[in-house]
Each structure stands twice: as C-alpha cells, then as structure tokens.
Amino acid sequence: MQTTKQKMQTVVTPALKKDFDFSNVHEIPQIRKVTVNAGIGKGRDPKFIDTIVETLRKITGQQPIKTKASKSIAGFKVREGQVVGATVTLRGERMWHFIERLSNIAFARIRDFRGIPESSVDKDGNFNYGFTEHTAFPEIPPDEVESLHGLQVTITTSAKNHEEGLALFKGLGFPFVSKAQK
Questions:
Q1: How far is residue 66's CA from residue 109's CA, in Å, rounded to a whole number?
Q2: What is the pLDDT of residues 136-175, one digit of tens each?
C-alpha cells in the first residue's frame, strides 16, 4: 500500500497538473506544513496545561510550544504572559505521517462522523478542522483520559484558491461531504 507521501507524488500531483492545466511543476499545490493547536480555556490549573502538552506530544511525536497571551484581556480573565495554549508545527516526514494517521484513522474514530464539510478548506486552499475530543487519535488510550479537550488541525498549502485546495485534499483521500449529500 502506498504512503500518503507516495500517493501525493504518483497520483495526486499528476492529476492536479492535468485537471488545472498547470504548465509549470511549481504551480501544482503542495502541502507546506501542519499546525496542531490546543487552547487551555478559562480557569484551568497548571496540571491541565501539562495534560494538553503531553497529549499534543503523543499525537504529533514532537514537543509542543506553550503559547502565551500577548496582552491582558479582563473580560476573558487573561493576563499578559499567561499560558493560553500549546502548538506544534510539523514539516517533513512527521508531517506526512501525521496526515496519513489523520485521514485514515482519526476521522474514522470520530463519533457520529458524516464527513468533512467542504467549507473546511478556506479561500486560500488551506485545511482547518477542529476536534471536540482529542480521543479520536489512536495514540491516546481512552481509559487513560482524565479530562477531555479539543484541538485544531491546520494544513497549510501552496494552493491559490479553494478549488485547488479541495482537489488536493480529495486526492489525498480526505472524506469530504458536499452540502447536497448531507
């Protein structure tokens, strides 16, 4: 069976070149990076921050960076310098392994999953999906979960518009559903 990276090189790239009539190989949309974020929320203790960092480390195989508030916002009870989340940026082989697990395993493990809405690909061709529970990933054993939290996955591409980005992700096997199918 082909890996996602091999599928991109042998199937998706030639199909995109043909479908969009690209004359130059550098015009073909490519995946640049994957960013995985998790926010802390309000009123969480330091142990919860460590839980989120450990979860992201298990899911991505890379140490997350704690993100801090750039300014104080009284309405959200956030002070400048306070940890408000964690983020991981994946490139290279780890990025391809993550995309493969995401499209083949994680989406299938979401409860009541009916497909990804096509609106998850923005006008610039980037993919954004928010998980309400981090347990969709196989690296997280459900019996060890103390508290649930969500996370956001963003896949940044070199696509110029929504159509190119959507064709790229459909070619990679992402389970999209159009509005007519819902």
A1: 27
A2: 888 887 777 777 888 999 999 999 999 999 999 999 989 9
Sequence-distant (6+) residues with CB within 8 A of 17 are 25, 28
Please state, in angstroms and rounded to a whole number, the distance separating the CA atoms of residues 176 and 182. 11
Q: Which residue type does 24 have?
A: N
Reading the block at residue 131, the tokens are 């998980």
C-alpha 103 chain-centroid distance: 10
Q: Residue 7: how many CB atoms within 10 A of its CB?
A: 17
User: Is the domain covering 30-172 a CATH 3.40.50.720 domain?
Assistant: no
Query: Residues 17-57: pLDDT tens digits?
Result: 999 999 988 999 999 999 999 988 765 677 888 888 999 99
What are the sequence ranges of the domains in the chain? 30-172
